[in-house]
Amino acid sequence: MKKRIFSLKLYLEGLRQTKLVGIVSFIILTIQAIAIPVGNAIDKISYDYSGGARGVDFIELNPMLYAVIYIVAPLLALSLFNFLNKRKSSDFYHSIADTRICLFLSYYAAICTWIIGICTLTTLIGVITNSIFPQFFTLNSVNIWLTTLNILAASLYSGAAVTLAMTLTGTLVTNIAVSGLILILPDYLTFMFKEMVMSNIPIAPRNGSFGDALPVGFNFLSVDFEISFTNISNAIYTIVLTLIIAAIALVIFKFRKSESAGYPALNKYLQAAIRITFCMVVCIFACGGIFVLSTGLETFGGPDIFALVMIYIAALIVYFLYEIITTRKFKTAFRTIPALLIVVVLNVACVLGMSSMYNSYLDFEPTASEIEYITVDQSDEYVYDISSYLEMKCSKIKLKDDNIKEIISGVLSENIKKIHSDRFYENFSSRITVTICVDGIEHQRYLILSEENLNTILSGLKDSNEYKETFCTLPDASSVSIDTYDMSKSISDSEAERMYSLMRKEVAELSFEDWYMLAYGNTTSNAMSDFNVTIIDGAKTYDFYIPIYTVFDETANEFVKLTYDKATTDKVVELLKNPDELEEISISFFNATDLYDYYYYLEDDDKDFDRLNKIIEYLVPCDSIGPDDIYCRVNVYDEYSMKYEENAKYNEFEVENYSVFFKFTGDPKDFIDEY
Amino acid sequence: MIVSKNAVKKFDTFTAIDNLSCTIPDGCIYGMVGSNGAGKSTFLRMISGVYRPDSGEVTIDDESIWENPAAKCQIAFIPDDVYYLANSNMNRMADLYSTVYPSFDYNTFKYLTNTFNLDPKKNLNSFSKGMRRQASTILALAARTKYIFFDETFDGLDPVMRNLVKKLICNDVVERKATAIITSHSLRELEDTCDQLALLHKGGLVLESDIGNLKTKQFKVQIAFSDEYDKSKFDGIDIVSFHKSGSVTNMIIKGEREETVTKLSMMQPLILDVLPLSLEEIFTYEMEALGYSFEGLFEEV
Hints:
- The structure holds two protein chains of two kinds.
- Chain A is of the alpha+beta class.
- Chain A is built from 24 helices and 13 strands.
- Chain A has helices spanning 8-17, 19-46, 58-61, 66-80, 87-95, 100-131, 141-168, 172-198, 225-228, 232-255, 268-295, 302-327, 331-335, 340-362, 386-394, 402-420, 451-463, 465-471, 493-509, 512-519, 553-563, 566-577, 609-617, 668-674, and strands spanning 54-56, 137-139, 371-377, 430-438, 441-449, 479-482, 527-537, 540-549, 584-591, 598-603, 619-621, 630-644, 651-664.
- The termini of chain B are far apart.
- By secondary structure, chain B is an alpha/beta fold.
- In chain B, strands 6-7-8-3-9-10 form a six-stranded mixed beta sheet, with helices on both faces.
- Chain B has two domains: 2-202, P-loop containing nucleotide triphosphate hydrolases (Rossmann fold), CATH 3.40.50; 217-300, Alpha-Beta Plaits, CATH 3.30.70.
- In chain B, strand 7 (147-151), helix 6 and strand 8 form a beta-alpha-beta unit.
- Helix content of chain B is 35%, strand content 30%.
- The interface between A and B is medium-sized, with 28 and 26 residues.
């Protein structure tokens, strides 16, 4: 019998031993992958949705797949390699007629198979189910498959990390504890280290979060899935890291002794390393405190010293408690006291490291000539409308103006001086987040500056052609729809796309100032309706509304044309002549130069038929509008019924609604004033 | 043939196997006895490839066992605490054994399951200790390996089952020329099963012999003389144990029986009785000679 590195029989045995976890997970995830789109589609059908297809990201397609990283993959590893925790099972597997490498690789392949199968198949099922309803959902394939790839990579990583922990330890408690260390510790320590330093530097941008401390890679406790899981470099990094972790686990497994089963760690040195690491997780807080104390950033009082002492007491409790829990012996805890010297050394190293990082951050003080370019970030954290989307795009514009470089260089130097003299927040006025590029490396700073300097920088930005061009360019949309639920005639997606192209042209023709005001909603111009736009930018999907302002003549006219229906218009005219039958009327007046923004309501308790009759005299049915026309939109509700179910559990509204445009030949002010 | 050359195995500071050398020929049933902690189970784990010797070597048919699938596929090892998959039954375990033992024979498995009257579909958790032992024996025998190692196999088996297991082991050895190693504290079990017996103490081999030889080469002598005498009277005779009470002495002697009796007769004793020894007595006296005795404890009390 030859030595081999993989055994099909062992692999199948591994799949068999993990089938409970694998199949249950697969079924649950499959149900949600089908249920979500079907449920959403039923919802839309039942409410007679006519708003067009909505962009679907991974998070709306297979959100529970994240559970594979946190639950399924660790469970698969824990259940399959559990034999390493018991002497009799460990002996059995070490006696079988295959090499340890073969056993490890065959079993690990079984874990990977389940993970790959669950991730890809459930996403595929979700994609297929969504594709059945193209009228409701536009799939962002890049986002969906990139996120799936990242989750797959992260799941393989967590599976490998738990497997590594299991090869290093020999009890369930230590398996889980060390798994946690491997998965969380690098990110935790990096984040804490950075946070302790950055929180004491007022010019450091505070946009970090626990989980994205490491520049790339899978972060087990990442809270920002959309960023870290839609990045191809993250996936590649995580897969490479997985291979490294799995290779380390393989080597340890090969040399692991069967008799290690049941013991907390392979040897006393490893046990000490794990114990010290847990202790340092707590000590890092105290290190931060000592760092602040050593740099003189804050004056420490009695309560602070007490807090430091309490942290170190907590660290000692963790240190000894880990030993007692894992060995179940009190006397071994006393034997670990000498190793506390290592903890002391590590604490000193941590404090020195923080001080060094702090000084290095404040040493960055480039002259204007050293600065290659500056970018100004005015964008919000989230894109929620057209202005935030465009600002996000503009935040990448590189400013190379010498004056701006001078201002930034000066402001930065002044900020650093103020930090050193402990007067940073004196004469506080404005703040700005800038990225300063020196020698090809970008440094982000959150600076305090005068209103005058801020305006100069922002003017410099807004005056740049690149900014104007970027801001006045409506993005290419992956899908466009117009919600016409209240119109008598709906607008198809292709018609909406054509209208959107028209508006893109009109925005480009508009002056930057006018469009800037409109984009930020600083206008009296009426919005006839909204474009529901989905933009797929690489792996990111943005969904937001863009108002169809009346100032966009061609687009507005197209809207009137497309929604014109003679039969409905005639019906509305007829209804207006018999207002007694009406439940509610609303009339809003427009014109292209946004002069009018008035509403006229006629409701049950306030029926003013005289005024209505006067208005009707000036209404002219139309299927198009000219730039100088005054026109109005009339909404009529001729029936308002409410059905009560017998058991009164719920009720349902049925409203017959007609909404049409008319030309208005009179002066709206006459009627509104009267009102 | 299994050969151990100066094998040493330590657990931290404890030496479980200390420079052990022995040769176990093919086609025999080899019994191992020894005090608790003598290293019997550790030795079996070493020759099963579970443990790697810290120094020295163990081989099967001149091949190292450690990480050697060619050697390990010939070995089935039933430890004192047998491993079963969680919530499994015998059929499931048979599938697992067929995965790891290329020569696993389902027909033998079915035949033995019927013979032992065990339900292969029943959850092993519901089996008694003895039934679990039977199940492990069935699985090991169905593996059809050249070498089968049983660690404390007869523990928990009733006399009928013990005899059945012994017969099955003997049949396997005879029919397939297999080699079995059995460890046990019950010397009576080994006495009528094994061809060879080894005695381990503190990780070392203190005695290794075939059963017939062991029984004839050691015997008990009760002897009395009219005049005063001491142990020196018997110089030249290999005495394992010597107890004198008045003029009567009880001795355990190692050597050729006829020759020794002739020698003693020539001393003209008042009484000379030669009695055969059971294996249990041989074990006890050998261990006593190595200082493994608690009799003094009770005498003091």
